[in-house]
């Protein structure tokens, strides 16, 4: 579908939930304001959905269900998806300024936040984001992952840490019903892992897990869940938190319940440790262990060091201490916070003044916090600012109103862009691969990993859909 020429043309960079929500809300609010709008949604990957496709664990189809809602938004035809286009390489800011009245950056936060301790860069130490990209079949990640450790440490007390630990501890055959590619299955099937340890700096009542993520740990086949009584020290603040927050109450009850359960003799174990602050990753040329200092509650929700040091012999360390945004060419960037500086979504220059026509939404705007509901509210805030700026934006007489000109530019530059129709073709292809799987019949899909293959399948429909 080719959008007609319109009074307002907007480019959105990033086709994850933040970008799609922004486009959907933008179309509604602009139409309500009495204008028409053409929206182009660009992504560096051939397929849409961002971290929903490449950041959610394969054994969590419930969360991936949000794809149905996002698909409906793009099926409506009010947003044009253009994939396999990298901002800063295939298109620059000057190109976007020439063809659009406004640009919304929704590139998210895909890098691992740093953990600054000695030895963190030793071979055998990994960022969780990279591992997640591997097991989710990201096209820009190697097909192979070094899974040669029997004992593994995961640092972090959020859902990503649990995802990483669960995938490491789980037997590969128990993932065959998911969409994992054959290379991921082969890697996990060859893992010699026996013990996965998850470490948090605070106590059991201060974890950042969600109850459903935590409780499902007890249901992993042939994996014993182990917690330690010395990590459950009395604390008045934690008691108040449990009494006032139902989610904390549920998780604390779950964790305390596991204290009384004896191991069943499973072939693998998943250990949850609390009140451990990482001090050093050590080893001679590669990871051989990790050192922690025990912490204790301060009574106000914080913790302090006790001076007690404990070592754990492990051969691999995964840091899951958060995500971080990355800088974009010609766009202001706050290197400390890892975000685009902004005021309610309006991008700010070094002097703190709004840059006309530039906006941000999602994690690149506010940092990697919040759930999908926050993403919707965040997009609404940004788009409301953009709509308020409409009189200034549409007054720009230099914007090229030709909807196909940007595609002609990409073609001239040799960019093999993909379209929404192309994604639907790839979507059908992946589902067909799943239904034809001889090992586990009836799988929903098997992901195509290769970027070249994704583009080839998508490009069959690319030009005919315009």
TrEMBL record:
The keyword Oxidoreductase applies. SUPFAM superfamilies: Nucleotide-binding domain. It comes from the Bacteria. Its cofactor is FAD. NADP(+) binds at residues 157-160, 201-202, 213, 370. Belongs to the ferredoxin--NADP reductase type 1 family. Residues 9-174 form the FAD/NAD(P)-binding domain. GO terms for molecular function: ferredoxin-NADP+ reductase activity. FAD binds at residues 18, 51, 363, 370-372. InterPro entries: FAD/NAD-bd_sf, FAD/NAD-binding_dom, Ferredox_Rdtase, Ferredox_Rdtase_adrenod. The keyword Flavoprotein applies. It comes from Cryobacterium lyxosi. Keywords: FAD, Flavoprotein, NADP, Oxidoreductase. This is ferredoxin--NADP(+) reductase. It catalyses: 2 reduced [2Fe-2S]-[ferredoxin] + NADP(+) + H(+) = 2 oxidized [2Fe-2S]-[ferredoxin] + NADPH. It holds the Pfam family Pyr_redox_2. Its EC number is 1.18.1.2.
């Amino acid at each position: 579908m080719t959008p007609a020429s319109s009074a307002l043309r907007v480019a959105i960079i990033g086709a994850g939930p933040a970008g799609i929500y922004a486009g959907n809300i933008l179309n509604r609010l602009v139409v309500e304001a009495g204008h028409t709008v053409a929206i182009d949604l660009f992504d560096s990957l051939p397929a849409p959905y961002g971290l929903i496709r490449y950041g959610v664990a394969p054994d969590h189809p419930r969360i991936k269900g949000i794809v149905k809602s996002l698909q409906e938004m793009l099926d409506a035809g009010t947003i044009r998806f253009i994939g396999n286009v990298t901002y800063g390489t295939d298109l620059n800011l000057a190109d976007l300024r020439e063809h659009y009245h406004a640009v919304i950056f929704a590139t998210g936060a895909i890098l691992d936040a740093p953990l600054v301790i000695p030895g963190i860069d030793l071979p055998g130490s990994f960022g969780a984001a990279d591992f997640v990209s591997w097991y989710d079949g990201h096209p820009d990640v190697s097909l192979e992952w070094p899974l040669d450790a029997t004992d593994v440490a995961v640092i972090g007390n959020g859902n990503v840490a649990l995802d990483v630990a669960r995938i490491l501890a789980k037997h590969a055959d128990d993932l065959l019903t998911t969409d994992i590619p054959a290379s991921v299955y082969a890697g996990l099937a060859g893992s010699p892992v026996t013990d996965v340890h998850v470490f948090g700096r605070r106590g059991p009542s201060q974890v950042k897990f969600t109850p459903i993520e935590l409780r499902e740990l007890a249901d992993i086949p042939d994996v014993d869940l182990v917690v330690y009584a010395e990590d459950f020290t009395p604390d008045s603040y934690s008691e108040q938190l449990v009494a006032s927050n139902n989610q904390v109450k549920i998780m604390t009850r779950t964790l305390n319940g596991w204290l009384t359960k004896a191991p069943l003799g499973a072939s693998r174990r998943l250990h949850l440790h609390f009140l451990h602050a990482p001090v050093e990753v050590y080893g001679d040329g590669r990871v051989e262990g990790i050192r922690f200092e025990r912490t204790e509650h301060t009574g106000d929700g914080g913790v302090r060091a006790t001076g007690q040091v404990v070592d754990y012999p492990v051969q691999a360390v995964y840091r899951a201490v958060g995500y971080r945004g990355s800088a974009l060419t010609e766009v202001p960037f706050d290197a400390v916070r890892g975000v685009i500086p902004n005021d309610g979504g309006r991008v700010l220059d070094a002097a703190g003044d709004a840059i006309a026509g530039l906006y941000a939404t999602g994690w690149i705007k506010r940092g990697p916090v919040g759930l999908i509901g926050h993403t919707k509210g965040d997009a609404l805030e940004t788009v409301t600012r953009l709509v308020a700026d409409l009189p200034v934006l549409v007054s720009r007489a230099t914007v090229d109103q030709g909807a196909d000109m940007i595609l002609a530019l990409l073609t001239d530059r040799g960019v093999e862009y993909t379209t929404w129709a192309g994604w639907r073709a790839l979507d059908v292809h992946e589902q067909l691969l799943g239904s034809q799987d001889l090992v586990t019949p009836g799988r929903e899909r098997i992901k195509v990993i290769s970027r070249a293959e994704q583009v080839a399948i998508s490009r069959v429909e690319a030009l005919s859909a315009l």
